[in-house]
Design brief:
The complex is a heterodimer of chains A (315) and B (513). In chain A, β5 and β6 form a beta hairpin. In chain A, strands 12-11-10-9-8-13-14 form a seven-stranded antiparallel β-sheet. Chain A has a four-stranded antiparallel β-sheet with strand order 1-7-2-3. A three-stranded antiparallel β-sheet of chain A has the order 4-5-6. Chain A folds into two domains: 197 residues, D-amino Acid Aminotransferase, Chain A, domain 1, CATH 3.30.470; 87 residues, 2-Layer Sandwich (Dna Ligase, domain 1). Chain A is of the alpha+beta class. The longest helix of chain A has 15 residues. In chain A, α7 packs across α10. The radius of gyration of chain A is 20 Å and the shape is globular. In chain B, a hairpin with a 5-residue loop joins β4 and β5. Chain B contains 19 helices and 14 strands. Chain B starts with a helix and ends with a helix. Classes of the chains: A alpha+beta (315), B alpha+beta (513). At the A-B interface, α1 and α2 of A face α18 and α19 of B.
Chain lengths: 315, 513
């Protein structure tokens, strides 16, 4: 079959792009709250105030004059990440995993000297990586010490967990695994594998690549059914709490797992995509309706919302 | 919910206003959706001759009836030395009056010229009902004549005959008195006014048929130096039909300009003699919408007075193009939000389509692809330099101009002027497109560039095909109020939350059992 029918999609409760934009985003996300997620520095400050676990902020470079003090400032840090606060698509992120004398080491093993770091920060400040070339600030944050539980599930890098939060209720989750085909990027339409994660228990549901179901990772050969997210309720609670923090009704939370600190919110997104429905082989509409019905009856804390979701959205 | 109601109300109001105005313009002002629909315009000239006594002169001419779907515009009425004015009698007869205090003695002549076109077909206009009572006879029938009239009417009133057939049969009998005694007798009846024509009219009235004598010009052919000819209008129960008193046949009312409908005099003169007037007519065709605009201006319809048509021609031409742009926007909205085609830059396809209007489609596509491909290669060279945004775009702009120049010069040296068309492309937009596509290439890969690029070109081509369509061009220009309808449609799509066509493909695996 080349095309399906609108009737069939409605039966399955699939949300389309127009519905996402007009109803989910248009009616739930106030524009004035967007900077809370579009500006990663604001997100971090708000999260720390709200007691939501995020990678620790080491410092912020706001002006070109700050670049001169970088060497001194970073003297005690061995592993850190420099990223633009308003960057898009993962551009302009510099990861430093260690030191070799005067040099900083990148994950690939190549060396960067102090001037290299300064130029990178300077580029961020002048808006090289931000949308529309607007001046930006550079954030320096602690490098996440990724847990090994996801080893072998991804071709390169470490996967994060995307959780869709509707009015504070986690409604759907997935993880995106990069492949050789996707060039190490976690972008589904470039050939990354999407794996739906059961809201009830945190284990993998089904996996898709290019919209077609598959059993094992195409490059690493690991059985994708074995993917289980530890500390699952903590993941969900982090995501649920970000609703109070951002006041955005339709929200995507990207959560990573640190070896020592546990789940950390890496990024929030006010316009999360719809591919998560394909990865879960489930539509969003029915869950959103359940949330609306529950909201009509109770006012719940983040913890209660997580329990509600785990009970009602388990498959 | 309140939002929803407001929006629905707004859409309904916009629709009603837009469509209502359009219908009004078509039905009442005579606009047409068809760009090629032509109306016939007749230029009717009357030449007035008279011998002046010397001294003050006053001449008045009955004006053609500006009713019944006819629009009469005067194109010439001034004559050197004469003052002209209009009068309107209580019976509704319009006359034009020329006067002069010091006319020299001797023969005088001057011209009066009008342009005439039909707003509505005379066939539709002819539906107005006659008065309830038959008009009095111009001369009552008495004695033998009453019997003769009765005989004629009886012969004509065959039960198989309708009113028109009865009428033409009566006229025919009068036209051949040699075969009909009653007719011969009636024609010999001494009459005070009128001749055979008034007799025919009286006979019809006697037969209880509504009729009237009209005078006018047959417009179907070009006439020179004609007098007005007399016709009889007969009401057949539904509408007035025009009968030729000589042939007793029904004539096409659209080809007949009624100059006199009442028994008023055609030409009156004081201070002169031997006045006569002769008519010449010439028919030309003009576009229906042009005629409607002229008609509207004549009637001082505010829809015409306060519209594009009141602007200077150059501005009107500019608006001809501008009014197409919202239409292009609608296409973009439909293709993006209902079909789900991806384009690079929201309105870039519209601007590209506007360029295609100048270059024509195939040439435009080839030139666009050449410029963008060469531009992308040059832009890729810039990538490693890590330039800031504005200098980067500016550098691309320089590339683009250079490519334009190269295409034009190389093409021209090779003997083709096709390349010169490249200047019609908006270079700033092209520069931005190149930049966006290059960024897309780096971030998402070449496949996405191909998808968005072909989506943009497809959208631009669709918009081009529609924009250069004569019918749509006419529609947006002749009916700018359709913009309101367009706006209503855009508002509707703006709140459409159903699936896009592309999503039926995207989510196809989820539709399976």
């Amino acid at each position: 079959m080349l095309l399906t029918t609108p009737k069939r999609l409605r039966q399955r409760g699939i949300v389309g792009m127009n519905m996402r934009n007009v109803v989910y985003i248009g009616q739930n996300n106030q524009r004035k709250f967007y900077p809370r997620v579009d500006d990663k520095l604001q997100t971090k400050v708000l999260a720390e105030e709200a007691g939501i676990a995020v990678p620790r902020l080491i410092g912020v470079a706001r002006y070109q004059s700050h670049t001169k003090k970088l060497k001194e400032f970073l003297a005690q840090e061995t592993a850190f990440v420099i990223k633009p606060a308003k960057g898009s698509g993962g551009k302009g992120i510099l990861v430093i995993t260690g030191r070799d004398g005067e040099y900083y080491l990148k994950p690939s093993g190549s060396k960067v000297d102090d001037r290299g770091i300064r130029r990178h920060v300077s580029d961020i400040l002048s808006g090289l990586f931000s949308l529309g070339g607007k001046p930006d600030v550079a954030m320096i944050e602690e490098l996440v010490n990724f847990s090994e539980v996801f080893d072998g599930f991804s071709f390169e890098g470490v996967p994060d967990i995307r959780i869709i939060v509707y009015k504070g209720y986690p409604v759907m989750a997935m993880t995106r695994l990069s492949t050789k085909e996707s060039d190490g990027k976690a972008n589904l339409h470039q050939g990354a594998v999407g794996v739906g994660i059961d809201i009830g228990k945190g284990h993998a549901l089904n996996a898709v690549q290019h919209g077609q179901p598959l059993e094992v990772h195409p490059d690493t050969g690991r059985n994708l059914k074995e993917l289980i997210v530890p500390d699952w309720p903590v993941f969900l609670e982090l995501a649920a709490k970000s609703y109070e923090m951002t006041e955005l009704g339709y929200l995507g939370a990207d959560v990573v797992l640190d070896k020592e600190k546990g789940p950390l919110i890496l990024e929030l997104n006010a316009r999360p995509g719809l591919a998560i429905q394909v990865a879960n082989n489930h539509g969003l509409i029915s869950r959103v309706e359940q949330v609306e019905a529950d909201r009509g009856k109770y006012r719940r804390t983040p913890g209660e919302r997580v329990l509600f979701s785990m009970q009602n959205f388990a498959l | 919910m309140r939002n929803r109601l407001e929006l629905t109300l707004l859409i309904v109001i916009l629709m009603v206003l837009g469509i209502g105005t359009t219908i009004y313009k078509i039905k009442v002002l005579g606009f047409s959706f068809s760009p090629d629909k032509k109306e016939t315009v007749w230029t009717v000239e009357s030449r007035i001759n008279f011998i002046a006594d010397g001294g003050p002169v006053k001449i008045s001419l009955n004006m053609p009836d500006n009713r019944g779907g006819l629009v009469v515009t005067e194109s010439l009425r001034q004559t050197k030395g004469y003052k002209s004015s209009h009068t309107l009698s209580k019976a509704g007869v319009k006359r034009i009056v020329w006067s002069r205090e010091d006319t020299p003695k001797g023969p005088q002549h001057f011209y009066y010229r009008v342009n005439i076109f039909r707003q509505k077909s005379a066939q539709k206009v002819a539906r107005q009902k006659p008065p309830a009572n038959l008009p009095p006879l111009s001369q009552p029938f008495t004695d033998v004549y009453l019997d003769a009239a009765g005989n004629l009417i009886k012969e004509a009133q065959n039960p198989e005959h309708d009113i028109i057939k009865t009428s033409s049969s009566l006229i025919n009998q009068l036209n051949s008195p040699e075969t009909n005694q009653s007719a011969a007798l009636l024609l010999d009846m001494p009459r005070d006014t009128g001749g055979r024509l008034n007799l025919a009219s009286d006979l019809l009235t006697q037969a209880k048929i509504h009729n009237r004598v009209v005078k006018g010009l047959v417009l179907s052919k070009n006439n020179r130096n004609k007098k007005l000819s007399s016709y009889i209008e007969v009401f057949d129960g539904k509408k007035w039909q025009l009968l030729n008193p000589k042939t007793a046949e029904v004539e096409d009312p659209d080809a007949f300009l009624i100059w006199q409908r009442h028994n008023e005099s055609l030409l009156e003169i004081e201070g002169g003699s031997k006045a006569k007037t002769r008519f010449s007519s010439l028919s030309t065709k003009i576009l229906a919408n042009q005629a409607a605009i002229k008609g509207g201006q004549q009637k001082h319809s505010w829809l015409i007075d306060f519209s594009i048509y009141s602007l200077p021609l150059a501005s009107q031409n500019a608006f001809k193009i501008l009014l197409l742009i919202p239409f292009g926007a609608l296409i973009v909205v439909i293709l993006r939000n209902l079909v789900g085609i991806q384009t690079s830059g929201t309105f870039m396809p519209i601007l590209i389509a506007l360029s295609f209007l100048q270059t024509k489609l195939v040439v435009g596509l080839i030139l666009f692809l050449t410029v963008v491909c060469v531009g992308l290669i040059l832009r890729a060279l810039l990538s490693h330099l890590n330039l800031l945004l504005v200098p980067r775009i500016s550098a691309i702009l320089v590339f683009v101009i250079t490519i334009y120049l190269a295409i034009s010069v190389i093409g021209f040296k090779m003997g083709s002027e096709v390349g010169l068309n490249v200047t019609f492309f908006p270079m700033i937009i092209i520069s931005w497109s190149i930049e966006r596509m290059c960024v897309l290439w780096e971030e998402e890969g070449g496949k996405d560039v191909l998808i968005q690029g072909s989506g943009s070109l497809f959208t631009a081509s669709v918009i081009y095909v529609l924009m250069q369509n004569n019918f749509i061009g006419n529609m947006t220009y002749a009916f700018p109020e359709l913009l309101l309808v367009l706006l209503a449609i855009i508002l509707m799509i703006g709140t459409y939350s159903g699936y896009r066509l592309s999503e039926l493909r995207r989510f196809e695996p989820m539709g399976r059992e």
